Structure formats: structure tokens, C-alpha cells
Amino acid sequence: MKIKITRRALLAGTAATAGVTAFAGPWKHNRVWAQRTDKPILIGLTHDASGQFANSGQDEQRGTIMAIEEINAKGGVLGRKLSYIVADTETTPSTATRIAERMINRNEVAFIVGAIQSGVANAIGQVAQKYGVVYFNTNSSSPTEAGKDCQRVKFVWDGTGANFANAAAANAVKTFGKKWLLLTNDYVWGHNTSKATRTTAVQYGADVFDEILVPVGTRDFSPILLKIQQAKPDVVAAAVGGDDFKVMRQQTVDMKLDRKPAWLNNQQDWPDVYGLGIDSVFGVFGTTWYHKLDLPGVEDLVKKYQARWPDTRIDVPGNVFYNGYMAMHELAKAIERAGSTNNLKVIRALEGHKMSARDRLQHGDAYIDPVSHHVQQTIYMAMGNDKPVDKTDYFKILSWVGADDAKDKNEATDCKLQPLDKTPSYEM
Amino acid sequence: MLVAFAIFGTLPFWISEIGLYPYLGAEVLIFCIYALGYNVLLGYGGLPSFGHGAYFGIGAYAFGLAQFNLSSSLWLCLVAAILAAAFFGAIVSLFISHRRGIYFALMTIAFGQMFFFIASKWTSVTKGEDGLLNILRLPADFGFAAYPIQRNIPFYWFVFGCFVVTIIVLWRVVNSPFGKVVQAIKQNEARTAFLGYNVVLYKAAVFTLSCAVAGFAGALFAMAQGGAFVQVMNLQWSGVVVLMVLIGGGFVSFWGPVLGVVLYFVARDLLGVYTDTWQLWFGLLFMLVVMFKPEGLAGIWQGIVYRKQKPRSSASLHLLVMLRGR
Amino acid sequence: MDFLLYLLPHLLNGVALGLLFALIALGFMLIIGVMEVINLAHGSLFALGAYFALSLMTPDGGLKLGIAQLLFDLPIGWRYVIVLILAPIGVAVVGMGLEVCLRRTYGKDPLYGLLLTFGAALVLEELIRLTWGPTERFIPMPPSITGAVFIGDLIYSKYRFFASGFAILMIGLLWLFLEKTPYGALIKAGAHDSEMVRALGVNLTRLRLFVFGFGTALAAIAGIVMAPIWGVRPHVGVDAVVPAFVIIVLGGVGSFWGAVIAGLLVGMVVGLTGAYATDWSLIAMYILLILVVTFRARGLLGKKSVLEL
Amino acid sequence: MALFEAQGLHMRFGDRVVLEDISLDFPEGRLSGIMGPNGAGKTTCFNVLTGRYKPTRGRVVFDGEDITGLPPRTIARKGVSRSFQLMNLFNDFTAEENVLVALPAMRQRGFDLIGDAMGDRDLRERAEAVLERVGLAGKGPELAKNLSYGDRRALEIGVALAAEPRVLFLDEPTSGLGTDAIARLGHLIRKLKGEITIVAIEHDMEFLFGLADSIAVIHWGQVIRRGTPAELRANPWVQNSNLGRLK
Question: Which of A198, C195, D84, D105 is 20–30 Å from A320 (CA)?
Fold first, then answer.
């Protein structure tokens, strides 16, 4: 047993990144130590590197890291450089909790950024709230994130399932018809998203005649596809996510069923489709950003991305990258506005903050909702591109909806942020 | 035993110095409890369950639900978690106790998957993939005084206390007449039946017991995380506990699982800092252990001790027996 | 009548699904039946098959050897046929490497074989992620087997016809091999009486190496055939190994027809629950397993095996 | 009055008839033998008698009670104990633990989850006594798997004895043993004879002839001869048959 101690000690010696930490004094406020002003601001990046969302996790990581490098190239924030540490959250909440604890207690990060899956985001959010660390949920789009599971320290950057439903449903009733069938992945995100779709669709006169619950982990959609054919709906509104969605897409496209009923897919994450060929995009779906938006600055970002990440298989930036990239830049700006890395000041600087369409590289202005901490933003509707200009041009952008129209009205009632004065002060 | 207690009993004083952190210590201890309970089933009973995460998860959910709906007493909530896990374990044991080997293993997978599936589906109760959040670390009320265990270090002490209790209970169980019978069943089920034992009942009992311990650990884990998440119930996490127990040497030692858990978490935490591909290195390490030292870490340790201690004094023999477990 | 018309496509679909499930389980069955090793790396080898096929089918797979260019220049149909032969051979080599590692566990508790392959599964999956990246990949298929067919007014996938036909072919070939060739007889003898095989003067070590390689090649074939249906991603193997496991136990360890029947049964159950109670379709297979094993200890057609000890 | 009786046992596996109308009785306090060539149905008969298999037809009666088809553990609890032909010890237990687990007193405490199994002096003394009885005094702390072949056989009988049976069934006790060990075993069984009722299957005729009070010969699933050793020895059929070594 003694051997173990020495081995551990040895390992500790090699783990040079860890500063010498001691636990002293009462917990809540001992985190506010005098900081040397030149000490880098350490950001903990909690992106999935394995598990179901490894691919998206790595894509948002490219976004956050690129933003950090750009900020540092301009001299950092408040005279301090940004540095970062990365840990794989494995798409697993228990891992995420441990990593958040480690980042805060051992690595002493100032902020935590990154999430794809809502369970992971919640696990990190809870730890962050306990210590008061500001946490950015970059890419988990469960409506509960800015609803009942909102946190004072947590900010949600992606559009949620409800946003996409709001943006799409009204239009789809007019365009495709009134006979609707819902295809719902049998988990919280699926249920919430379908609920939002149903509400909006019914409001615009649709008849939702059936809802098929698809168990999470379904690998064969053939019975479901047959069932859909037998039911003959005008519109199939699908809230199917993760690997299930990839499998469903593949099987639907293979059977050429992607044209006959109109498919309304909630959101299409870029990393999930890129590389599979333009044919593999099916249905109408939402996204927060596209690399061929006709806006100033978009092309620049694409070029910068390609220069920085020449080796990645994803040749152009997509929405997942974009959310990570924008969030990190906004974090730096918020620190600048707050004049401090103190969490409470940063939170105040973020709440209600307005971001211009120009800065966001979107068509409409966006703002951080002070009620739910959700970034209310432009939502684009898109479909597979029938006239691509190059091999990356998968999407045809159909329309866009401004922040206030896409907004999820339930957030205001569902979300109850912890009071700011009950949030521990934290500064690194 | 003393060495283990000494290391874990002083851990908060030095863990930060070696580059780790108290939360990790608490998590390690919780998984030690889980793994030790599991090893009573696998190492002593010879019954490979590949769906044990289910009972860990049931414990976590039961703890959270009890806290929200029943009582704000820590003890009652813990008891509820243990009973819930034991209850479902007992039901499952009715189906699987007359099975052996691979059929036993498969049935545990099937039931584990069912529980996992139900937990993911029954979102109104478990909150599905979002997780059952805001589970509190309730104060430990001893009647004469109540201690808050919100912060990580007091929480660590609390978990350590639970660990000690678990060790003592399980140690007594494996050395009790019941423990002997269970070991006899592992070695020779038919013979044990011919000696007049109702082996099915014993298998059911040991399965239920280890489910109860898993539920206990699950409840502690819910406190540690402040929530209950469905992922701990999936097949992969059920596999991880088997892996930890065997790599540590659960077949040859009571303490094996503890070694395995420590190795797993520390290696993962440290490898995870340097590489995203820790799974590759850990997998390789694991293959090497299975190939060259299937008795696991405890086997290596025993090899060293035996070689050094050819002429044993009775005192050191006693110590050795305590260390090896059996 | 309406009811029957509604049911019929689902029944047929269930049969097609069942054949695919049986195909997925074949390699697993061979290894568990003959060597009494539970090969948890089956899924990763299944995935590896798909990735090898990816690399051989298209330059997109990252294979930069000059000789591969010859392959890429072939018409896609021929390329596909060649890949269906070459990729499994490649995977078989990997599998044989694994068998060499496994030798140290022979004669011990079968749990150790299971654990070793569990470790191998982790390693293989991570190697796949390192080599080909975490992104979803796409293997081009000959156009003659993709697309849709019309059955009445229903559309069905052409590829599924091909895949289930292929599954029947593989099941038939394997059966012929096991029953009608001297090698098959040897393999079956090796399953139950290793002493007899030794007495016949056959090198048991080599026989096991061969069987394991053969089993992993079957896993790879299943991986390639399933790729257009399930997609190709590093962790796709998990989707294969669990059903394979279920099917083997349901059918009974060591029984060829047991596995085939169980595969069909699972396919039918998944197909029908998919139509009538979609939200229960995934768990149906486990409920089926629990029911069968509760009443028939060794599955449908199982024999006694050391794995029970 | 026989303590243990088999009445008209039939046993079929599939369409194979293994036992056909077997009736046997084993009087109290005697040593009865069953012999026959390999494959004659001896072991199946044994397994039916001790409850491992349920006979297709017929009854097994112990002490006036019908025990046909009861599970092995119930039969064992009534006082029927058996040893196994292929040695069936708890290999990772010590010799003492092997015996300990078999004691009825231990069985009664089987669901004692917190007591110390090895701390009960009374139990250990009883176990020690059994070991002594089978000639293994002092070998208690040895692991069963490390014992010599002869010692293991003795322990096998010790485990069966520890259950404090009224009837002890021995399945081919001499198989695999050398001459010395057989002699030792003979000595041991002779000591037990008279204390309890013993039924032994054996194909070593010499061994059985020297010990048994009466012997039944089974062939093709039927009892073909019964009698005392002397009667059988004189029987020309037995002499001519190849039932085993007969000097």
C-alpha cells in the first residue's frame, strides 16, 4: 500500500499544470484571492471527445479555441491572456460533474465553456452554480436548459428545440398541408420539442393526427417508415436527435421517402451531416448559422477557420462551431465590460446584453434574455440544396425568423433563476 | 484494512498536494462501496452481473425522489434508496437465481437494459436525460448534533464513514456462515445443493444484498453529483464496475475492488489530462492485466507479499489474512 | 381485411430485419459455439469491417497507397465485390491477432476471455476514432442495389432486399461449410471434444486461430452489409454486439439453427412492435429474452456448455 | 424392514431406456453394493435414488416416506448424503471448511449474515471430529485442491459424512485410486460400516466383495442378480462376465 502513495506522489509531481492548492478558511468566499494581473485567465473547456456527441464536441472545441487565440492575438482581456484546459466529458453527466469539480478545485479555472447534451450541461451547471463559476452551455438545445433547468451562472447559446419549432411550424402548415404526424424521440428533448411544434402547428390550423414515439437508440426505422407511408400525412414533424437521427436520415433517404411527405426536422447540426454528401440532407430544418450566409464577415470567418484548421474533415465552419466561437468572444467582451473576472460582475454584464446582427454574423439582432439566460437569436429555415455552388454548399436557406418571433414564450414561466445575491462570489 | 483506512482516513489532508481533489476522493470511495458490494456477488458468489448499474441508478433516483416527496431526513432517504434497490433486485433475483454462467449474465443484462430503458422513458419521474436535479446533500443528523455536509470535505468525511460501515458489514457477511455457503455455491453449486442447501434462495439473497449496496452507493453518488442521471444505468457503466473489480483482483481478495477503483479513477483522471484517448491506453492496460496477471492488482500484491514472507510469524500472518481478505 | 393489409408489410419487414439480425450474430455464434469465448470485441470488429470497406471503396477513406488507386479506378460494382472479400480478410487478420492474446485465457474462467475482448473493444474503437476521426462516414454503394422499389403503393428499400438476400446466402454458405466439409466437421468436433481433435492429429492451436479469424471475418461482413442501413461511426459496434448477444442466448449457445431462428424471432418482434407499439420496440427484444430464458434455461435450442459453469 | 427402497424405477432419456423396472432395498445398518459394467445404468440409478433425476416411473421410499422427485436439498435434509465419482469438493476451501459447510448445524445457520463462520468453537470441533474420522486429522488448514488424491477421496467421504446422514451413498469410491489408497479407503469404510447405512456403487468387485453385506448387479438397466458376496462369487454368470477385476 505504501507503494501506492509514492506512486501517486510521483504522478502529482508530473502533473505540473496543477498549481499548489490548499483549502483554507470558510468555503464560500475564500475564492476571491488577490490576483496577479498578468496571470492568464484560465477557461475550462468541457467538450465531448468520446461518446455519441464526440464529433460535435470537437467541432465546438475548434470554435472556442479559435476564439481564444483571436482574443489573445489582440492582447487578451484586461491585460490578461486567456489560456484553456480541455477535458473529455464523454457525453456522460457523472464524468462531467467530476470534471467540473476538478477544473474548479484543482485547475482553478475562471470560466467553464462547452456542452452538447443537456444532462452534461445540467451536471456541469449544478457544480458551477455551487461555486458561482460562470458556465456557457454552447450547444445543448433542450428547451429545458433555458426553462426549468436554468441557472444563474449558466448561459445558453444555441437555439432550443422550441425556437426551431416556432420558426418552422407556421410556415410549414401553409406550404405543405394540414395533416401532420409527429415523430418524437422518446426523451425529454424530443417531448418538449414536439410539444412546441404541436402547439404552433395547431395554432396555424394543422391537424396533428398521430404521434409516434421513437425509443432512444432505435437503429431500424423501417417499421416506422412503413407506418408513415400507410398513414399518408402531409407533414412529418420529426424531433429525433443524436445517432437516431443519423440512422433515420440514412434510411429515409435510401427509401427516397424524403420527398413524398414533407419532413420537418427540428435542427440539423452541421457536424452530423457534413461529409455525407448533399443528397443526405433531407427535409426542412432549422439552424442558427450557415457558412454561406450573404453577410459581411461570414466569408472572412470561413477563411480564418480553414487557415486555422486545415486538417479537420469538416472543411467549413457550421452552427456548432459558430455557437462555441461566438460564445467565447462574448465572454471576453463581457469580462471587458465588467472590468473584472468576478462572476457576479460578469453575470451582470451578460444579462440583457444586446448583440448586433453585424457582430453575430446573423440577419437579426440578438440579446441575452435576462429572465432565462438564453441567447434569443435569429433562426434560419433551410433545406437540402438543389443548386449547390460548391461541395460544401449543403443547405439552401429558405427564410429567417427574428429573435422575438422565434422566442420560446414558456421560458419566462418555467425558468426561475437563483437570486444573484445567493450565488457565491467567485473570481480567478 | 488498517492501511486502507489510514490512506482514506487522511486523504483530505494530502490529496490536493498531489494534484488531485477531494471530490475525486469522495467519488472513489462511493465507487469502492459499489464495487465491494458487487464483488460479494461476483468474487464470492461467482455470479457475473452485467446490469448492476441499474440498481446503482435506482438507488440514486430513489434517494432523490424520497428527498423531494417523503422526508428531509438523510437517514430515511438513504434507507429508502437501499430498500428500493433491494426490492427491485429481489424481484429480478426471482427470475435469474436458477440460472448460471452466461445465462445468468445475459439475464442480468436484459433486466439492466429494461431498467435503463424505463428510467429514460419515464421522464415525468426521472426527468430523462436532463437528469433529476437539485438533489441536496442533507445534513447528517446524529440526534445530539447535526453536521452539514454540503461542502466537499465534510461530504468526504461522511462518505468515508459510510465506507467504513460498508466494509465492516461486508467483511462480516463474507466471513459469516452465509458467506461460506455463498462461496461454496460458487465453487460447486450441485454439491452445495446435495448438502441440503437451497442454493436458489442463497443466490437470490446475495444478489439482493449486492443490489442493496449498489443502491446505497447510488444514493451517495446522487448526493455527490447533486442529481441522478440515467447514464450510470447503461450497459457501459455496468461493464465498468466489472472491469474495476476484476482489474483490482476481486476474485482473490476482499480488497481487490478498492485497488481497482482507485486505479481506474486516478489513471483516468491523470490520463484524461494528457490525452483524449485515455480509453485506448486504459483498454491496453486492461488487456495486459487479463493476459499476464488475471488475479489483478491484488494478485500482484499477494505475489510480492508471499515471496517476501516465506517464514511468517503469526502476527504477520494475521495481518496478511486481514489484507488478503481470505 | 384492412387489418391484414396493414399487417402484411410489417410481417415481411420483420422477416427481412430478422435475417439481418441473424447475419450480425453469425460470427459471434461461431466463436462462442466453437471456442466458448464471448467475444465482446465483435461489435468493434464489425465496425472495423465497415471502416476497412470505406478505405477500400473510396479515396475519402484516407488510404494513400498507390495500389489502392487501381481499386478506386474500377467500376463501383466490381469494387464492391472485391471489398466484400478483402475487407473481411483484413479484419480476420486483426481478429487472429486478438486470438493470440486470448490464448492466455484458455482453460480459465470464461469471464477472462470476455474481459480481454472487452478491453480489445475499447482499444479498437479508440483506434478507429484516431484513424478515421469521429465524424459520421458514408460508403458509396453500387447504384444497382440502392434506391427504392414499389410494392403496391408502398415504397421499400432496394438495399434491404439485397441485404436480406445476402444474409440468406451467408447463412446457407456457413451451414454448408459446417455440415458438408471436413473443415466444418473438425470445427464442430473442436467445439465439444478438443481431445478428439488432437487425437485426429489436427493442430488445435491452428484450428482455433482459424475459427476466430473466420468468426471475425463474418463480423466484418455484417459490418459492411449493415453500413448503409446503420451508418458508419466509431461506436456503431455497440449496436451490433448487444443484439448478437441476445440472439445467441435466445437461440441457445452452440446451436446454428437456434441462432437463425432467434434472429428471425427478434426481427419479427422488433418489426411488429415497431408498427404497433413503437415506443416499446427496443425493449421488446429483452422482454422476449427474459420470457424465453425463464421458461427454457438454455434458450430455444441450446446445448450444455462450459459457459454455464 | 428396509430403510431405503426403490420400487419399480423406470428412467428414459428421450427414447433411450436407461433403467427398467429396478427394485432395490437397503436394510438399515448394512453396507449394500451396486455393481455393473460401465454404461449399465449404475450412475443413473444412483442419481435417481439421491434425487438428482426424477424417475420416469416408480417410487423411491426412505424410512417409509415417498421421496420420489423431491429436490436434492430436501432429500439431503432428510438424512440422505452422497459422495461423487468425479471428485466434487470445494477446491478453494480448506479441508476444514469443506466439512464445516456440510454440517447440518451450519446449514441451520446458513442465513446468519453477521456471525463468524470460523469463530464458532462448537462447529469447528465437530468438523475436526469428522476429519479425524476419515483420517485427515491435522490436515484441516490445507486447501482441498492441494491435497493428495487419496486424501481428497477421504475428504469427499468426510463431506458426505459431515451431513450426519442416515444413509450414505458412495459413488465409485475407489475410482482413480492406487492400491495403497484403496486399502486405506477400505479400512475407513469398514470403520463406518455398522454405524450408518451405506450404499456403494463400485466396479472394483474385489473391493466390494470384501465389504458389502449384499450386492445387486445391474446390467442393461436391469437388476440381473442379487445376493451376498459369497453367493455371487459362486455364481457362474458373475464369474464369466467381465464385470471387473476378480482375482
Answer: A198
- Domain around A359: 38-159+306-377
Task: For C136, list phi and psi in degrees, rounded to 5.
Answer: -65, 135
B211 pLDDT tier (thresholds 50, 70, 90): very high
Q: What are φ and ψ of residue B47, in 5° steps? A: -110, 105
Query: What's the domain range around B219?
Result: 2-9+18-324
Pairing of strands D57-62, C154-157: unpaired
Q: Give the closest of A216, A260, A313 to C133, CB-based.
A: A313
Other chains touching D, judged by 3 or more CB pairs under 8 Å: B
The identity of residue A334, as a single letter, is A
- Shared domain for D122 and D229, answered yes or no, is no
Among residues D164, D183, D210, the one where a domain terminates is D164
pTM above 0.80, yes or no: yes
Is C183 contained in some domain? Answer: yes
Chain A nearest-CA distance from C273, in A, is 8
pLDDT digits (tens, 9 = 90+) for D112-170: 888 888 888 888 888 999 898 888 888 889 888 888 888 888 898 888 888 888 899 88
| A312 vs C135: CA distance, rounded Å | 10
- What is the total count of domains within chain A? 2
Structural domain total, chain B? 1
Establish how many alpha carbons lie within 13 A of residue D51's alpha carbon, considering only the half-sphere containing its beta carbon: 27
Q: How far is B58 from chain D (nearest CA, A)?
A: 24
Say if the Cβ atoms of B176 and D72 lie within 8 Å: no
Spatial neighbors of A184 by CB under 8 A, at least 6 apart, are A190, A191, A193, A194, A211, A212, A213, A214, A239, A240
Which of A224, A256, A287 terminates a domain? The answer is A287
H helix or E strand, kind and range, residue B322: helix B314-324
Residue A184's region, left for phi above 0, alpha for psi from -120 to 50, else beta, is: beta
pLDDT of residue C86: 93
* Cβ atoms of residues C249 and C299 within 8 Å: yes
* pLDDT for the residue C307: 53
Give the structural domain span for C22: 17-232
SS3 A73: helix
Indicate if the pLDDT at residue B42 is higher than 70. yes
Confidence of residue C303 (pLDDT cuts 50, 70, 90): low
Residues of chain A falling short of pLDDT 70: 1-37
Quick one: DSSP state of residue A148? T
Q: How far is B226 from chain A (nearest CA, A)?
A: 7
User: Taking residues C43-69, what's their average pLDDT?
Assistant: 85
Is C248 among the domain residues? no
Q: Does residue D100 surpass a pLDDT of 60?
A: yes
Together in a domain, D66 and D173? yes
C193: closest CA of chain A, how far (Å): 39
Hey, how many other C-beta atoms are within 10 angstroms of the C-beta on B253?
24
Choose, out of C135, C138, C156, the residue to mutate when testing the contact with A (most A CBs < 10 Å): C135
A97 and A177 in a common domain: no
A405 in a structural domain? no
Structural contact between residues C51 and C232, judged by C-beta atoms closer than 8 angstroms = yes
| More confident: C264 or B308 | C264
Question: Do A101 and A191 have their domain in common?
Answer: no
What's the rounded Cα separation, in Å, for the pair A185 and C282? Answer: 12
Within 108-127 of C, beta carbons closer than 8 Å to B belong to 108-112, 115-116, 118-123, 125-127
ipTM of the complex: 0.84
Asked whether the beta carbons of residue B133 and residue A126 sit closer than 8 angstroms, the reply is yes
Residues D226 and D126 occupy one common structural domain: no
Pairs of residues, one from chain B and one from chain D, whose beta carbons lie less than 8 Å apart: 94
Q: Let me know if residue C247 belongs to a domain.
A: no
What are the respective helix, strand and coil percentages of chain B, to the nearest 5?
A: 75, 0, 20
Do the bridges between strand D31-35 and strand D57-62 make them parallel or antiparallel, or are there none, so unpaired?
A: unpaired
Can you tell me the distance from the alpha carbon of C148 to that of C162, in angstroms, rounded to the nearest whole number?
12
Decide: C302 and C253 in contact? Cβ < 8 Å.
Answer: yes
